[in-house]
Design the sequence.
C-alpha cells in the first residue's frame, strides 16, 4: 500500500467523564489501568472447565482462592446490557480486560491439554513472559520470551485483513467490543487466514527434512496441492514480517529452519515456474511457524497465539471506528431466479 | 481495482447471491425467486429454510425429513448445557445465544459447512433461549416435543404450555419474514468469516454479535420502550416534537435499502391490527407523526417505517418478553445466515478489502527512555 500525503487525523471520540451507571472515567489507557486490579485473571466461567463449572449465580464466589483477586466485570457483564451508549464509555476499559484475557485463556488451554492445572498469571512478568509462564508453568527462558514478544509485535495489526474487517462490520452495528472480538476470532480461525501458521508447520512436518523438500513439493504440486505459507493478497515483495521472523528462526529452531529454508527455495522456484506472472512470496505464517516452534509453543496453539497478538489490533480498529460509526451494509448482485414465480402448493410438489 | 472509499460500503457490490434480493425501488423482498408476500402467511418456516438452503421448495417427503432432523437436534450438548448454566442470570439473551451457540458447535472444529450442520444449528436456537429464559424465571426446563413444528415448539419450551394456533401462526409468519434479507451487516459478517474457510459455528457466532447492535437487530425492544414513553396517541405529537428538539432518534424508521414501504412491515402491520389492537392504535399514530416530522426535516429522503417497528407489536402479542425480541430475530435469521455461509463456501474467495491509510507518515520509534 502506498503512503498518501497525510490529511490530519480525526481526533478520537470524546469519552464522557463517567458512565451512566457510575463507571469510572474511560479516558486514556493509563487512566483506565490506574484504578483497576491486575486484569489478567479471567472469571471462572471462562476458564476452560478444568473442574465442574460453578452453578451459583456469581461464579466468582466459588473461585476457592486458586484464581487471583476478583477481576473487574468482564466485557459482556451486566453493565453492558442493552446499553448501546454505555458500552462505548466502557470500551477503553474493556480493551484492558480483553487483551490480557486472551493470553490467559491460551495459557489455561495449553495446561489443560497437558492434563495439568492452569497456573496463575504473574503481575511481575511482561505480557510475553507471562504468556509463556502460563503455558509452561515454569520460569520463562529470556530467549523464548524475546521470540514470543517479537512475534506478538509483528502480528499485532495488519490493515483491513478479514478478521479485522469482521470486527469492524460487527462494530458498525453498534454492538459491543466482546462481540467484535469474538467475530474476529471466528474469522481468524479459518485456514485461509490465521490457521495458515499451523498449516505451514503441518506441511513442514510432512516434508520432514531438507533433503526431502524437492521430492515432496514436486509431488504435492503435481497433485495440485496448495503450498502453505506462500502468497498474499497484498504484498508484492517479501513480507517485511517474514523477513524478521526468518532471521529469528535461524537460532530459534535450527533444525526446522534448515528444512524450512530449503522448502522455501524449492517452493518459490516451483511457483515461479508455474506462474511467472505472479509475485509469489513467502508469507508471515511460514516463518512464524518456525519461530513459534522454537519458542516451545505447541502447534495446536499457533492460531490462538495469533489471536493473542492481533487482539491489540482488533480492539484498536474498533476504537477507531467509534469516531465515525456507520453501518457497514454492502450491496449484492442477484444471480438467482427471476423474481415473481408463485410457490406451488405442498401437496402438488 | 477500485480505490475509492465508500463509507459503510453503501452500494458496493460485495457478493453475488441467489438466496435473497432486496428490491428497494419496488419494495420487494425475494427469496430464491419467490416474492415474500407469496410466502409469508402460506408456508412454514421449515419450508422456507429448506428453500434458502436448497434453492427450491421441499416435497412432502423432504419436508418431513427436514422436520424430523430439526426435531432430533433440539437438545444441547453437555458442554453447551454447562455453559448455559454458568452464565449469570442477568446476561443479555443475545450474549447467551452468542456464547452457547459457540460451545454447542465446538465438535465441528473446522469442518466444511453442510446443510445438516445448518439444520442442527437452527434447531438449537429456540432451545437455548427457552432454557435460559426459564432459568431466569426460576422455572424447570421444558423438554422439546418432536411432534411440534419449529415455531410451536419454541413457544412450548418457553411457556411450558401449548400456544394457540393463531399465536403459532403469527410466530411462524414472523420467522418466515425475517429469515433472510440480502447482504445485511450480520449476514455480511457471516460471509466474511466463512471466507477464511472457518466453520459454520464461527460464522453464526460472528453474525449474532453483529445482529446484537442497535443499528441492526438490537432495536425492536427500543421501539416498545419508546412507545411506552409516549404512552398515548394524544400525546404522540407533543412528545415526538419535543424528542426531536433533543435530537432523539425515532425507533423503527429508515432503512439503507428500501425506498418505499418495507413489504415485511406491511404484513406485520396488518398482523398487529388483528392481534395487538392497543399497540396498533398507538403505533399507527406514532408512525403517522414520525413520518410527517421526518418528511418535514428531510423531504428528499424516503423515510419509511422499517420491519422492527411492527415486529415489536407482533412479538409482544405472541407473548415474548422484549429482551427476547432480538434473539427471536436471530432464530429466524439463522436460516439465512447459514444459507449464505453455504453459498460462500461453495464458491469462495477471501473477503479482504483495502483501506485508506490516514495515519502519520512512516516514522522511527523514539526509545522509551527519551519519551516524554
Sequence:
Amino acid at each position: 500500500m502506498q503512503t498518501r500525503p497525510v490529511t490530519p487525523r480525526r481526533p478520537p471520540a470524546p469519552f464522557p467523564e463517567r458512565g451512566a451507571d457510575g463507571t469510572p472515567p474511560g479516558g486514556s489507557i493509563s487512566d483506565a489501568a490506574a484504578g483497576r486490579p491486575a486484569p489478567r485473571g479471567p472469571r471462572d466461567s471462562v476458564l476452560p472447565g478444568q473442574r465442574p463449572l460453578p452453578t451459583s449465580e456469581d461464579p466468582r464466589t466459588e473461585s476457592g482462592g486458586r484464581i487471583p483477586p476478583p477481576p473487574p466485570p468482564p466485557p459482556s457483564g451486566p453493565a453492558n446490557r442493552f446499553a448501546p451508549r454505555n458500552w462505548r464509555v466502557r470500551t477503553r476499559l474493556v480493551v484492558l480486560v480483553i487483551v490480557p484475557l486472551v493470553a490467559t485463556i491460551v495459557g489455561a488451554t495449553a495446561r489443560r491439554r497437558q492434563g495439568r492445572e492452569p497456573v496463575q498469571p504473574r503481575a511481575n512478568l511482561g505480557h510475553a513472559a507471562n504468556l509463556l509462564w502460563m503455558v509452561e508453568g515454569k520460569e520463562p527462558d529470556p530467549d523464548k520470551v524475546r521470540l514470543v514478544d517479537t512475534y506478538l509485535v509483528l502480528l499485532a495489526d495488519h490493515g483491513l485483513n478479514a478478521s479485522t474487517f469482521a470486527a469492524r462490520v460487527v462494530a458498525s452495528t453498534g454492538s459491543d467490543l466482546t462481540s467484535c472480538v469474538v467475530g474476529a476470532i471466528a474469522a481468524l480461525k479459518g485456514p485461509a487466514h490465521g490457521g495458515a501458521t499451523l498449516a505451514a508447520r503441518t506441511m513442514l512436518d510432512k516434508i520432514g527434512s531438507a533433503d526431502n523438500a524437492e521430492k515432496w513439493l514436486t509431488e504435492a504440486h503435481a497433485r495440485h496441492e496448495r503450498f502453505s505459507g506462500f502468497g498474499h493478497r497484498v504484498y508484492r515483495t517479501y513480507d517485511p514480517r517474514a523477513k524478521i521472523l526468518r532471521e529469528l528462526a535461524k537460532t530459534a529452531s535450527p533444525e526446522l529452519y534448515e528444512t524450512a529454508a530449503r522448502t522455501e527455495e524449492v517452493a518459490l522456484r516451483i511457483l515461479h515456474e508455474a506462474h511467472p506472472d505472479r509475485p509469489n512470496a513467502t508469507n508471515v505464517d511460514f516463518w512464524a511457524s518456525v519461530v513459534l516452534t522454537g519458542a516451545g509453543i505447541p502447534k495446536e496453539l499457533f492460531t490462538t497465539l495469533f489471536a493473542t497478538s492481533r487482539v491489540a489490533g482488533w480492539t484498536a480498529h474498533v476504537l477507531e471506528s467509534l469516531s465515525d460509526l456507520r453501518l457497514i451494509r454492502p450491496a449484492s448482485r442477484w444471480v438467482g431466479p427471476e423474481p415473481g414465480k408463485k410457490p406451488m402448493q405442498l401437496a402438488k410438489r | 481495482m477500485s480505490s475509492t472509499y465508500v463509507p459503510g460500503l453503501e452500494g458496493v457490490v460485495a457478493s453475488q447471491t441467489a438466496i435473497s434480493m432486496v428490491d428497494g425501488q419496488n419494495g420487494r423482498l425475494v427469496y430464491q425467486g419467490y416474492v415474500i408476500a407469496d410466502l409469508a402467511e402460506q408456508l412454514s418456516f421449515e419450508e422456507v429454510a429448506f428453500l434458502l438452503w436448497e434453492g427450491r421448495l421441499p416435497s412432502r417427503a423432504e419436508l418431513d425429513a427436514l422436520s424430523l432432523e430439526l426435531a432430533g437436534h433440539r437438545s444441547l450438548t453437555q458442554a453447551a448445557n454447562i455453559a448455559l448454566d454458568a452464565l449469570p442470570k442477568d446476561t443479555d439473551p443475545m450474549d447467551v445465544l452468542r456464547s452457547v451457540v459457540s460451545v454447542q458447535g465446538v465438535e465441528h472444529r473446522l469442518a466444511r459447512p453442510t446443510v445438516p450442520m445448518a439444520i442442527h444449528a437452527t434447531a438449537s436456537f429456540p432451545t437455548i433461549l427457552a432454557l435460559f429464559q426459564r432459568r431466569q424465571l426460576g422455572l424447570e426446563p421444558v423438554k422439546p416435543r418432536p411432534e411440534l413444528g419449529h415455531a410451536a415448539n419454541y413457544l412450548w419450551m418457553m411457556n411450558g404450555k401449548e400456544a394457540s394456533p393463531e399465536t403459532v401462526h403469527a410466530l411462524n409468519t414472523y420467522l418466515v419474514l425475517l429469515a433472510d434479507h440480502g447482504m445485511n451487516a450480520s449476514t455480511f459478517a457471516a460471509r466474511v468469516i466463512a471466507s477464511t474457510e472457518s466453520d459454520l459455528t464461527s460464522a453464526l457466532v460472528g453474525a449474532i454479535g453483529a445482529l446484537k447492535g442497535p443499528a441492526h437487530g438490537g432495536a425492536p425492544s427500543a421501539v416498545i420502550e419508546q412507545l411506552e414513553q409516549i404512552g398515548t396517541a394524544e400525546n404522540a405529537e407533543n412528545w415526538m416534537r419535543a424528542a426531536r428538539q433533543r435530537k432523539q432518534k425515532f425507533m423503527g424508521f429508515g432503512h439503507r435499502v428500501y425506498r418505499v414501504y418495507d413489504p415485511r412491515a406491511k404484513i406485520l402491520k396488518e398482523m398487529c391490527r388483528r392481534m395487538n389492537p392497543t399497540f396498533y392504535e398507538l403505533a399507527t399514530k406514532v408512525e403517522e407523526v414520525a413520518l410527517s416530522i421526518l418528511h418535514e426535516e428531510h423531504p428528499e429522503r424516503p423515510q419509511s417505517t422499517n420491519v422492527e417497528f411492527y415486529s415489536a407489536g407482533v412479538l409482544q402479542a405472541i407473548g415474548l418478553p422484549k429482551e427476547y425480541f432480538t434473539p427471536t430475530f436471530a432464530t429466524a435469521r439463522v436460516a439465512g445466515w447459514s444459507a449464505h455461509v453455504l453459498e460462500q463456501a461453495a464458491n469462495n474467495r477471501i473477503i479482504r478489502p483495502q483501506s485508506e491509510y490516514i495515519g502519520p507518515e512512516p516514522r522511527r520509534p523514539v526509545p522509551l527512555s527519551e519519551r516524554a
Summary: DSSP finds 16 helices and four strands in chain B.
